[in-house]
């Protein structure tokens, strides 16, 4: 149970191959011939047998043979029989390499696999390669070199092309997985395996589409948390949706949403095949980035300037040497060298000059990475300069990239750089773009670490009141809220709005305006009019009662003429927002297929489509994410001191975004929303207009309220936090784990006794490796849950003051099994808190969570020589049985 459930597929110890009669090559399918050659071309480390489905013998005989993996490359009509035989042989996984299988036949294969308990990869893919196992179970060509980079691709042609490129560029792979359409084991499951695969250090993905956003985001976040992931996605759709009923819905396209999803998952997106190769070079070098400041070391001004221009173009920062570094480096270089912006070593630069400059830049705290550009010069050997870089690389902790310009004279130098695992490029722009990918990974990792709760710490909203408004509108068989209803909904979540009152006659409008105070704005109120300005349904800055009366009558007549079918409720009278030098911004919501709701921010006003300024983020948001969302918009440049106007109140804007996030989390009926414009100035922000589109919420899979099934990223489940008394005095908190707990979890691990450590991890591990620590603390709260017991320790400081420090003293967790109905648990309690009731409380709490999730059984393995844990399990009502696969363990189970 300590191995990943897909281990039999990707690390099989025994394989059976169904590829026809291997002694009659003419009878084989084209893919079967390629597969046979591929499997026999190297010595697979496990047991490999070839079987014909028409062979004689009994099923009992077959069951005795058994295998971890069945590879099937047969004509479509023979595949179901081969899959059934694989199931009878107790194969736990199967790979179907056959092509030309339609969706209906693929669905039938899935049914057979599910019935036989087999994990099925395929059909219609090229198969898989695991070079370190000498396993080439593919029709993708020769075996790739062993390496630490994993490739997952939904295109067979692209898989073959990347492998061909890699063989020429010395890039090796830990895994190559080709996923065809209609595969049973999907991309999310493959990513989940690679996240836990020790052979894999980084992952490259070619993606054409996903079927389940929650599962995909969960797996991608888990993988990107443990190792760099780069994604190239095809099918970039143009922005815009003709059916949209709001500005936001019209300007936000699905490709923008995919960008936002990848950022939030901590992965990096590239836009071209060439960029994917560039990223693969950097990932193969195992760089771990620390920022976006790139220093450029060059022996020619032109190439250096081209690189610097591209640094600015893609939003990076040119790394400049500190005054101390300049002072120490200048005396060691030629007098013509310049260190002001670029590190231009001049045309006389030697290999030693490059070495000194790169070492200095590598040690400078103001620099995050170094690009060395070399252009051929008389009297300077390109290979010697390359060798100097290779020597510096050994002791350099920051990314080092190279650009050896030219051709014939620099070929040998490029070879030296490749051998030293220094990514090398032919153009300055390509090299800078590659560093941009590394910097994006660093920035996106910060987004990945954010796990906001569904509700912020601001004043509690009136959620029930908001739901009543939505239910009333849906009961009237309407989906578009009026402005009055939209603003009432915003007010329920404490979003400041202009005071708005509906008038049904000119006299009513005059009286309301006089009470509100002039100037006022009049706006048509109709469920059938999306954009009021288009039908002259807005009048601003009306200064007196006569103006209100005249504007009312004229607006009713004009709208009736321009839109005769529209139902008109009346005209709203609003106070004019009195913002001095205010800026107009817009906060929107769109619902994407398959990612669900997405929050957009950008410039507001009537020209929003033309300005087309949008930045997006997946909910839920916290303050860090809200701030980051604002900063990514173009309008952000106007929010500081701008053209004589003071800086706006950014906190007020961030609070509106947090409130919108709360709305999105708690109201799954929301489909589209425009709060436009929001006028923000130094004193605050106010929503002047709002339009909201709703629909019936999809039925939650578990049937329970607040399971947030409409979100692709689950919010932090703060509702599970509870305070419990500690046996012997004091108290502790049980709450779900979050990424900030990594250091406390490591601290607990370091202070466990060797026995407790062995009982939990079945190894003598002393501290958790970074990848495992990341895997334990950043979870998706959907397929797994971890609860920590946190105790506040009070100690007296050196000056007699009392210092409080939080400490994790226990952890219980479960992870859902592949059957989606049961889960496996783990439990550990700090030695000095043993016997104080923490173990039973953590187990009961994690069982409650699993029960709420809809799981039916919880199970775990306990060492036979761990009597304390076995006693606890029996006291909690678990059934204790021998574990058939290993007599050193007991299998403990409990029905939920």
Describe this structure in words.
The chain has 896 residues and is α/β, with parallel strands linked by helices. The protein folds into five domains: 7-236 and 249-282, Succinyl-CoA synthetase domains (Rossmann fold); 285-448, Succinyl-CoA synthetase domains (Rossmann fold), CATH 3.40.50.261; 453-498 and 577-716, 2-Layer Sandwich (D-amino Acid Aminotransferase, Chain A, domain 1), CATH 3.30.470.20; 517-576, ATP-grasp fold, A domain (Dna Ligase, domain 1, 2-Layer Sandwich), CATH 3.30.1490.20; 718-895, 3-Layer(aba) Sandwich (Aminopeptidase), CATH 3.40.630. Helix content is 36%, strand content 23%. The chain has an eight-stranded mixed beta sheet with strand order 29-30-31-32-33-34-36-35, with helices on both faces. A hairpin with a 5-residue loop joins β29 and β30. The radius of gyration is 32 Å and the shape is globular.
Give keywords.
896 residues, alpha/beta, Rossmann fold, D-amino Acid Aminotransferase, Chain A, domain 1, 5 domains, eight-stranded mixed sheet, seven-stranded mixed sheet, 36% helix, globular
């Amino acid at each position: 149970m300590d191995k990943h459930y897909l281990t039999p597929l990707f690390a099989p110890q025994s394989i059976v191959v169904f590829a026809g009669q291997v002694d009659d090559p003419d009878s084989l399918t084209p893919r079967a011939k390629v597969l046979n050659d591929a499997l026999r071309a190297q010595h697979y480390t496990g047991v490999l047998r070839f079987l014909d489905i028409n062979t004689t013998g009994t099923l009992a005989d077959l069951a005795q043979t058994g295998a971890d993996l069945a590879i099937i490359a047969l004509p479509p009509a023979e595949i179901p029989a081969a899959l059934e035989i694989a199931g009878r042989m107790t194969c736990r996984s199967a790979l179907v390499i056959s092509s030309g299988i339609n969706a209906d036949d693929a669905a039938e294969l899935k049914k057979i696999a599910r019935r036989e308990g087999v994990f099925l990869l395929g059909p219609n893919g090229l198969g898989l390669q695991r070079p370190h196992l000498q396993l080439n179970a593919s029709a993708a060509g020769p075996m790739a070199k062993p390496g630490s980079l994993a490739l997952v691709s939904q295109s067979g042609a692209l898989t073959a092309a990347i492998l061909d490129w890699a063989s020429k560029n010395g890039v090796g792979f830990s895994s190559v997985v080709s996923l065809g359409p209609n595969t049973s084991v999907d991309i999310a499951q493959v990513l989940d395996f690679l996240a836990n695969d020790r052979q894999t250090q980084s992952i490259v993905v070619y993606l054409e589409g996903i079927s389940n956003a929650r599962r995909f985001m969960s797996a991608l976040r888990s993988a990107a948390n443990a190792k760099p992931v780069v994604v190239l996605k095809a099918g970039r759709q143009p922005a815009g949706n003709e059916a949209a009923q709001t500005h936001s819905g019209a300007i936000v396209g699905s490709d923008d949403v995919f960008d936002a999803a990848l950022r939030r998952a901590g992965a990096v997106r590239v836009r071209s095949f060439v960029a994917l190769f560039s990223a693969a070079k950097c990932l193969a070098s195992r760089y771990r980035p620390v920022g976006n400041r790139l220093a450029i070391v060059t022996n020619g001004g032109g190439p250096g300037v081209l690189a610097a221009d591209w640094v600015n173009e893609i939003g990076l920062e040119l790394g400049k040497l500190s005054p101390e570094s300049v002072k120490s480096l200048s005396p060691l270089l030629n007098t013509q060298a310049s260190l002001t912006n670029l590190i231009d070593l001049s045309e006389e630069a030697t290999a030693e000059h490059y070495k000194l400059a790169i070492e200095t830049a590598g040690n400078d705290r103001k620099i995050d990475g170094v690009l060395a550009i070399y252009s051929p010069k008389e009297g300077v050997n390109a290979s010697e300069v390359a060798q100097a870089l290779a020597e510096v690389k050994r002791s350099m902790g920051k990314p080092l990239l190279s650009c050896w310009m030219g051709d014939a004279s620099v070929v040998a130098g490029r070879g030296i750089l490749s051998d030293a695992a220094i990514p090398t490029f032919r153009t300055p722009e390509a090299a800078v773009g590659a560093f941009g990918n590394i910097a994006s990974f660093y920035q996106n990792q910060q987004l990945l670490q954010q796990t906001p709760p569904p509700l912020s710490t601001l004043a509690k909203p009136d959620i029930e009141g908001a739901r009543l408004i939505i239910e009333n509108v849906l009961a009237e068989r309407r989906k578009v809220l009026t402005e009055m209803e939209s603003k009432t909904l915003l007010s329920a979540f404490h979003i400041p709005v202009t005071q708005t009152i509906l008038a049904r006659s000119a006299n009513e409008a005059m009286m309301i305006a006089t009470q509100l105070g002039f100037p006022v704005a009049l706006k048509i109120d109709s469920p059938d009019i999306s954009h009021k300005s288009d039908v002259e349904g807005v009048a601003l800055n009306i200064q007196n009662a006569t103006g209100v009366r005249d504007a009312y009558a004229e607006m009713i007549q004009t709208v009736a003429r321009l839109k005769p079918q529209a139902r008109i409720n009346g005209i709203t009278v609003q106070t004019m927002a009195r913002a001095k030098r205010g800026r107009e911004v817009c906060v929107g919501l769109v619902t994407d297929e398959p990612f669900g709701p997405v929050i957009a921010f950008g410039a507001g006003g009537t020209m929003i489509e033309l300005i087309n300024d949008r930045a997006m983020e997946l909910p839920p948001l916290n303050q860090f994410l809200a701030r980051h969302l604002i900063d990514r918009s173009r309008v952000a440049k106007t929010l500081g001191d701008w053209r004589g106007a003071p800086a706006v109140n950014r906190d007020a804007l961030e609070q509106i975004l947090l409130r919108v996030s709360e709305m999105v989390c708690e109201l799954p009926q929301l489909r589209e929303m425009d709060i436009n414009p929001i006028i923000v100035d130094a004193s605050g922000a106010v929503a002047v207009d709002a339009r909201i589109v709703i629909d019936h919420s999809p039925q939650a899979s578990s049937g329970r309220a607040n399971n947030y099934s409409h979100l692709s990223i689950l919010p932090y489940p703060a509702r599970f936090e509870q305070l419990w008394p500690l046996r012997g005095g004091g108290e502790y908190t049980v709450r779900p784990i979050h990424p900030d707990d990594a250091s406390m979890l490591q601290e607990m691990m370091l202070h466990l006794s060797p026995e407790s450590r062995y009982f939990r991890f079945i190894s003598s591990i002393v501290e958790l490796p970074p990848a495992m620590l990341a895997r334990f603390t950043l979870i998706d709260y959907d397929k797994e849950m971890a609860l920590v017991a946190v105790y506040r320790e009070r100690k007296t400081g050196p000056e007699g003051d009392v210092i409080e420090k939080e400490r994790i003293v226990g952890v219980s967790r479960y992870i859902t099994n592949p059957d989606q109905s049961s889960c496996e648990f783990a439990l550990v309690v700090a030695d000095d808190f043993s016997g104080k009731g923490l173990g039973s409380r953590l187990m009961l709490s994690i069982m409650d969570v699993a029960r709420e999730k809809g799981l039916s059984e919880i199970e775990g393995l306990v060492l036979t020589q761990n009597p304390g844990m076995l006693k606890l399990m029996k006291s909690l009502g678990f059934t204790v049985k021998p574990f058939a696969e290993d007599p050193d363990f007991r299998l403990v189970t409990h029905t939920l």
